[in-house]
Amino acid sequence: QVQLVESGGGLVQPGGSLRLSCAASGSISSINTMGWFRQAPGKEREFVAVISWSGGSTYYADSVKGRFTISRDNAKNTVLLQMNRMKPEDTAVYYCNSDLIYYTNRAYVRLSDYWGQGTQVTVSS
To answer: What does the pLDDT look like over 68-83, one tens digit per residue?
Structure first.
């Protein structure tokens, strides 16, 4: 009943920019946080950035701080990740993650660690 759909991945040259988008759909009652993780080949999934839905507080991994910006569109239940000054080490599959509550069968259900399907980002010349 709930989907997180990412878009915006692709190939970019070092120093370039990409913007990722993740839209949450379904019978969503409220969102606590939405964020991004990434997983490079042969490595574990790692945290990238997160934003709180009510106050808009943000938090970033040190490796992307100052280059990436996370933002939200409350009306569209969408989180964006603007990635600038990209580096080859940013190459990974990027996953959207959310802590949200949805309504189903006359009950509210919390999904505290819900994932999208991932989108590939490749930084290469």
So the answer is: 999 999 999 999 999 9
CA atoms of 94 and 101, how far apart (whole Å)? 23
Is there a contact between 98 and 88 (Cβ–Cβ < 8 Å)?
no
Q: DSSP states of 18-74 as a string?
A: EEEEEEEEESEEEEEEEEEEEE-TTS--EEEEEEETTT--EEE-TTTTTTEEEEEEG
For residue 64, how far is the Cα from the chain centroid? 13
Give, in order, the Cα–Cα distances in Å from 20 to each of 56, 101, 102, 107: 18, 23, 24, 32
Q: Let me know: does 38 contact 46? Beta carbons within 8 Å.
A: yes
pLDDT digit string, tens, across residues 51-71:
999 989 999 999 999 999 999
Q: Tokens for 65?
A: 């701080």
Radius of gyration of the chain (CA): 15
CB 100 within 8 A of CB 3: no
